[in-house]
Amino acid sequence: MSNLPKIAWIGLGIMGSPMSENLIKAGYEVTGYTLEREKLDRLTAAGGCSAGSIAEAVRDAEVVITMVPASPQVEAIAYGPDGILENARPGTLLIDMSSITPQTSIDLARAAKDKDIRVLDAPVSGGEAGAVEAVLSIMVGGEQADFDRAEPVFEALGRTIVLCGPHGSGQTVKAANQLIVAVNIQACAEAVVFLEKSGVDLKAALDVLNGGLAGSTVLTRKRDNFLNRDFTPGFRIDLHHKDMGIVTDAARSVGAALPVGAVVAQLVASLRAQGDGGLDHSALLRAVERLSGARL
What we know:
Its EC number is 1.1.1.60. The chain is α/β, with parallel strands linked by helices.
């Protein structure tokens, strides 16, 4: 029998499925719950167990991990008679790896404390590829003792794992991450259109740019998306739109000016309004092309 803690995983989307499978590969017993039957079938095929409800999934778990799209979904699965807080055992560690507002994480930790349930907010960066390869960056908010308890679990999921401060701090750092990523993708998209309109060999140009100061993880990860106009979602525009709302609201509350971020947030919103919300966020290239006169 394994001495590793039993894990309940709630939310098996683009990120959640490969992350839960990496825990199974690391020897953890994982019971999952999500609304899509095919995602549960994928988990069981990988060696996990499926549950018919949140209550069933968390009942015997020592660690509960959630990975859902936004704050309303976190609140829906955490609260109420069928939620995590009412059905998890006292002493359970709840790790929310969703990207949500810092205040939602703070409120969840406060409510969970009344049930003797420990909470960490632990959003991630690295996209689908980082989830599959178990090389995610994991930014954590919460108490040191809970972080220490969770660290072996995190090590099966990511490479850069940092406790950033008290509850909500992980989400604040994730918001900053999403700001940087969006601005970086926008800059890359503008460079791509500029290079192509100038008649330069785009592949050669991106190769040399990525070898210098202009190089970035974003350019490495999204280079082929730009070259092939392949916008199969690894991280959807819809979700980045949500995240840009989080960072602009949080910045306003602390009095931080985000002049470039505000412009990029509007460009993300405009792309979504034009029906591209389901595409990968590298599809910001489409917005630049439209602004440059292309008919898509």
